[in-house]
Q: What sequence folds into this?
DNA sequence: TACATAATAGACTGATCGTCTAGTTAATTG
DNA sequence: CAATTAACTAGACGATCAGTCTATTATGTA
């Protein structure tokens, strides 16, 4: 599995050895951590670089600006999250509503693992969108639509199995779920407890039309 | 203990009577605008001062630090908001559930008036609480409790009138409302539309146990 | 071998940040 | 009046911000 025998790097070698050969991916990964904890405006490039011991010159070799970097980080997170959603919501070994519950359980575990310091990148940036380059707005809106679509499909599956009413508007329910979910994540961060996620989810499930 | 009478103070008298409320109150008002739009970390003192044309040197005469200033702004907002809630939720000329709807309508109008640039101060600061002085956390949690309490009372009134089930847990419902509400405000800011507030509220009302 | 290019390296710029101190202005008293 | 003291302010301070610049060292290609 470990084919590190890839081509030798071109260019000047790093002074300190890095774990990853792919500096750009390392920067995005580090940026994802930082932005998920601190948002965009409050995250300094220097700090992101420091964590992976990459000099500043390299940053502007790989990214045209902080804005371009931010977009790359968002895109990376969107892909990661969409995949996570698919893993949960398309898992046919569970009934549809249980799959949603599985997603919530995963989120709870994740927040505990990061000691409630990391929320949702999309929610964080959505909050500060007015301070950000305008290009971020549509990017974030599109991501929410993507999530809504995936959740709506899962709800429709529940509908087919008769777990929720045939008359339910699954798209609208999915939209409502994510709207409130961001509030729940934010609150969980604030009180440093998973209860808000739990309460919110239970309320959502109980409110589904049967 | 009380021997301050024996020695009459010389020099320019302190403005104990006025405490120069003008300048200080102006700073808090300007800070409220700024922090509601940009959060705490991204709000510069200079900009807040500039808007009310108070020189920079004066800031640290009125406030010990940016942290202390932030706390004053939060307190101010909490009072303002609690009062707004009381005006809506205690208005007995409407049935209880309609009072909640009135609050939501007011929020929608407010967001339109500020062109979706201002969200909820408590929600904003809750999002970035890990970057803030630790004292902010409990302050924000307490404010949410205050809101929960007020909303729970209104829901109980609805219960008495038979609008919702006697078995409903009003405290928990109220908690859920505010958890999701912050997400709805954030989303409304993002998409620059009141629909998220509307959808969220409709879903909440429809989900109440009857 | 020669040259172009990829990548690292980090000092540097100018702006802005929160904070602080040394000062000025004004009111009161001896 | 002059001394005293509080109210208030101007501007300096070091830190840090995003971003630029030049130099250096490696590989790829001709």
A:
């Amino acid at each position: 599995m470990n084919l590190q025998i890839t081509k030798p790097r071109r260019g000047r070698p790093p002074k300190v050895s890095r774990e990853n050969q792919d500096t750009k991916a390392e920067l995005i990964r580090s940026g994802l951590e930082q932005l998920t904890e601190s948002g965009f405006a409050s995250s300094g490039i220097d700090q992101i670089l420091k964590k992976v011991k990459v000099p500043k010159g390299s940053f502007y070799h790989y990214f045209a600006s902080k804005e371009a970097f931010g977009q790359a980080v968002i895109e990376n997170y969107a892909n990661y999250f969409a995949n996570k959603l698919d893993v949960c919501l398309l898992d046919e070994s569970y009934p549809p509503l249980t799959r949603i519950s599985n997603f919530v359980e995963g989120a709870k575990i994740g927040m505990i693992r990061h000691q409630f310091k990391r929320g949702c990148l999309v929610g964080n940036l959505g909050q500060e969108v007015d301070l950000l380059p305008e290009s971020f707005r549509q990017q974030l809106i599109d991501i929410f639509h993507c999530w809504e679509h995936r959740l709506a499909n899962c709800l429709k599956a529940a509908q087919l199995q008769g777990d929720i009413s045939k008359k339910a508007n699954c798209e609208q329910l999915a939209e409502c779920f994510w709207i409130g979910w961001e509030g729940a994540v934010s609150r969980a961060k604030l009180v440093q407890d998973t209860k808000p996620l739990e309460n919110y989810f239970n309320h959502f499930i109980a409110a589904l039309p049967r």
